[in-house]
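To fix ideas, we quote verbatim one protein's residues and fold tokens.
>
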Amino acid sequence: KKGVLIIGSGNMVHNLGMAEQIRFPGITDRPFDILRSADLFVLSSHAEGFPNALAEAMACGLPVISTRFGGAADDIITNGVDGVLVPPGNPEALADSMVHLMTDSDERARLGDRALKIVERFSMGKVLSMWEEAVSKVTGSHPDHFPSER
């Protein structure tokens, strides 16, 4: 059954009479099953640290739309290349981007293919190298002196 699936919980949908179109199944311990069956992922946050859900959606090859909630959004998404960024607090821009991607399967496929590169950009080896570099700058130690568990 097609429609909108929102992970989490909410009652406004019932008050608006949209329970047939929008489903709130609650919290899940199987997000990847849901992500792999989705056509589009939207993160409409006003504030986030590092949004794992966004990175996980991209790793599943989903086209993503996210509000530009802070530095992490720009670190994860290159607007128009591997996802779409919209200003926070601008529901019109979010809705326009959603309608555009829901109606343009070629653009969804292009963004989804490019989103997969997040797996390389945030691989364990790359992230550990970034941490090692940051620690070496602060301590003056060379990364070769750090114990390696890789």
Notes: The mean pLDDT is 82. The chain has eight helices and five strands.
